[in-house]
């Protein structure tokens, strides 16, 4: 399935249950509003609110085995990452090889997945349950680079969580307003954060034990310097 077709499905789908889980922004007092005007991020343009709500509702949408589009998305992820021309069984160890938790091809929703903290010991249950087989990263556009002990899918889910939180906290409003889009910014920021992660992993000879430290650094970069991350991605792709 193409990204465009998948997005069109969610645009036309009934996501009322997912939308009901969205948290309304808290009310701000007069002082907070003044401080925001002086140094805070701008508010998202009203015409982009619908796209923002759609993105947040999609993030709350659970994988449904009975939904054909969901299964096509899952199969496409497998085929794109492995460069296989064939599909795969719904359940099996092949999902663990891509860094999913368990053999189902699905990880918990971003809000449910455990955060990996840098101060956790190696034998902590969260770290000990992380997959450590085949590792995949997008160091080269269209070419998979295999690197040992890189938990690809769980890191991707955590980066998704970070990007979604940045959107909820209106850290991305300036960039969304500039580009007049939300989902495109989210996709590019996810890719930019993954590029930053792959560089950190390579430069510091990362292991799963370093995952918490790297995620903390990615969270700071994504929320504090999203434009800098995006420029780094643009420079990389231009080469």
UniProtKB/TrEMBL annotation:
Ranges of residues in domain ELMO: 69-226
PROSITE patterns xrefs: ELMO
Entry protein name: ELMD3 protein
A Pfam family reported for this protein in Swiss-Prot or TrEMBL: ELMO_CED12
Transmembrane stretches, start-end: none
């Amino acid at each position: 399935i193409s990204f465009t077709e998948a997005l069109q499905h969610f645009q036309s789908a009934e996501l009322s249950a997912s939308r009901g889980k969205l948290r309304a922004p808290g009310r701000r007092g007069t002082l907070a509003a003044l401080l925001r005007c002086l140094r805070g991020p701008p508010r998202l343009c009203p015409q982009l609110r619908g796209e923002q709500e759609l993105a947040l509702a999609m993030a709350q949408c659970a994988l449904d085995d009975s939904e054909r589009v969901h299964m096509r998305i899952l199969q496409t992820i497998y085929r794109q990452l492995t460069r296989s021309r064939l599909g795969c069984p719904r359940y099996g160890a092949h999902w663990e090889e891509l860094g999913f938790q368990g053999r189902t091809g699905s990880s918990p929703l971003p809000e449910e997945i455990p955060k990996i903290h840098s101060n956790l010991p190696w034998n902590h249950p969260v770290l000990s349950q992380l997959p450590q087989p085949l590792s995949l990263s997008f160091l080269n556009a269209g070419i998979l680079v295999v690197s040992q002990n890189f938990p690809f899918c769980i890191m991707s889910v955590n980066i998704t969580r970070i990007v979604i939180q940045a959107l909820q906290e209106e850290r991305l409003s300036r960039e969304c307003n500039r580009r007049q889009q939300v989902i495109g910014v989210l996709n590019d920021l996810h890719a930019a954060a993954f590029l930053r992660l792959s560089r950190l992993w390579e430069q510091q000879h990362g292991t799963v034990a370093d995952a918490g430290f790297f995620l903390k650094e990615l969270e700071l970069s994504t929320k504090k310097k999203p434009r800098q991350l995006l420029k780094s991605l643009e420079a990389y792709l231009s080469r």
